[in-house]
Design brief:
Layout (H helix, E strand, L loop, with lengths): L9 E5 L3 E6 L2 E11 L2 E10 L2 E10 L9 E4 L4 E6 L19 E3 L7 H24 L6 H33 L7 H15 L1 H8 L7 H21 L1 H4 L3 H24 L5 H7 L3 H26 L4 E2 L7 E2 L1 H31 L8
Parallel strand pairs: 1-8
Antiparallel strand pairs: 1-2, 2-7, 3-4, 4-5, 6-7, 9-10
GO molecular function, one term: very-long-chain (3R)-3-hydroxyacyl-CoA dehydratase activity
Catalytic activity: (3R)-hydroxyhexadecanoyl-CoA = (2E)-hexadecenoyl-CoA + H2O; a very-long-chain (3R)-3-hydroxyacyl-CoA = a very-long-chain (2E)-enoyl-CoA + H2O
Subcellular location: Endoplasmic reticulum membrane
Length: 362
């Protein structure tokens, strides 16, 4: 049971427009702070000089203040900010001339009047300079057009990959494993459209429409298009392989979170569950997608070796032919390097958006 109420140690400082009160209480619970008739009343449960107890105090201010104090509770103390009604310097804090015993200057924030005036002047000059700089920067007359284009682009891509995902999911439930073998013939046209349109992401980065780094975008888009157009699009034998289902499925799931996230970002909206999915879903999906692409390449190597498709015969005395299947083996190394580049990029983004926020300790 708590003992009788006590007064905590309170430290104060001022500026021309504000008063700062630091109440030396830790583990504060249920603080009741109000200002009425120019008197601040404080009452709270906390751990102070007399242990865990109820502490309270009243301060009648020297001059009028705003009746809405701002309170910030930390683990070690409680900070109160009070706005003065008029910007001026007070000779003391309280209306009574004799300073209360529990009240003392806050030397960590203490400034005399001349120093406070200099600080105020510096802040005003900084604000004016910032306004001057902003006024010199010309406003982009096409910013609304650019924003509209980015919203439409992300919306179209989201609808396209949603169609792919829903179509494949429905077919999987209806046909089961049989849907694996004709995925390419039913989905390829939409995938061709979406992946061709994705080339615009490289252009967007090049001309500065988005601030995304260029290398990860190039690695992903050209890697996917190589699999789609060169490996799958040119070999009918590969188009009926079950691996096509997994490649298309993993690609579409990733984009279901990425494109709506970017679309909402264009209009300044952040939905936290979507942000979490955008920067978390890639952790299992990227390795699975990369593995499916690697399996696809490995399965296509014997076919390219047998048919000699895309192989290049050099006109020289040795009659050397560069087999495309050999280039695919080299590409396998490039594929995993590309996955590493995207992993590194996405990990940094995840850390920036979902990592723990740094807290200021006092």
């Amino acid at each position: 049971m708590a003992g009788p109420s006590l007064r905590p140690h309170v430290h104060w400082a001022q500026r021309h427009r504000e008063l700062y009160l630091r109440v030396e209480l830790s583990d504060v619970q249920n603080p009741d702070i109000s200002i009425a008739d120019n008197v601040l009343r404080f009452r709270a449960q906390g751990h102070g000089a007399k242990g865990d107890n109820i502490y309270e105090f009243e301060i009648e201010f020297l001059e009028p203040v705003e009746p809405k104090p701002v309170c910030r509770v930390t683990q070690r103390q409680l900070n109160i900010t009070v706005q003065k009604k008029e910007s001026n310097w007070w000779e003391r804090l309280t209306k009574q001339e004799k300073r209360p015993l529990f009240l003392a200057p806050d030397f960590d924030r203490w400034l005399d009047e001349s120093d406070a005036e200099m600080e105020l002047k510096e802040k005003e000059e900084e604000k004016i300079n910032k306004m001057k700089i902003e006024s010199r920067v010309p406003k982009d007359p096409f910013r609304h057009l650019k924003k509209g284009y980015l919203i439409m682009y992300n919306l179209v891509q989201f609808l396209g990959f949603s169609w792919i995902f829903v179509n494949m999911t429905v077919r999987l439930f209806i046909l089961g494993k049989d849907s694996f073998y004709d995925t390419f013939h039913t989905i390829a046209d939409m995938m061709y459209f979406c992946q061709t349109l994705a080339l615009m992401e490289i252009m967007n980065s090049l001309i500065g429409l988005v601030r995304s780094p260029l290398l990860p975008a190039v690695a992903q888009i050209f890697g996917r298009n190589f699999i789609l157009f060169v490996v799958l699009g040119s070999l009918e034998e590969m188009q009926s392989k079950p691996v096509v289902f997994f490649i298309f499925y993993f690609w579409s799931i990733i984009e279901l979170f990425r494109y709506p996230y970017y679309m909402l970002s264009c209009i300044g909206i952040e939905w936290k569950p979507l942000t979490w999915l955008r920067y978390t879903a890639w952790i299992p999906l990227y390795p699975l997608g990369g593995l499916a692409e690697a399996v696809c390449i490995i399965q296509s190597i014997p076919i390219f070796s047998e048919t000699g498709k895309f192989s290049l015969a050099l006109p020289n005395p040795l009659n050397v032919t560069i087999q495309f299947s050999f280039l695919l083996q080299v590409y396998l190394i490039v594929l995993f390097l590309g996955i590493f580049v995207n992993f590194r990029h996405l990990y940094k983004q995840r850390k920036r958006h979902l990592g723990p926020k740094k807290r200021k300790m006092k």
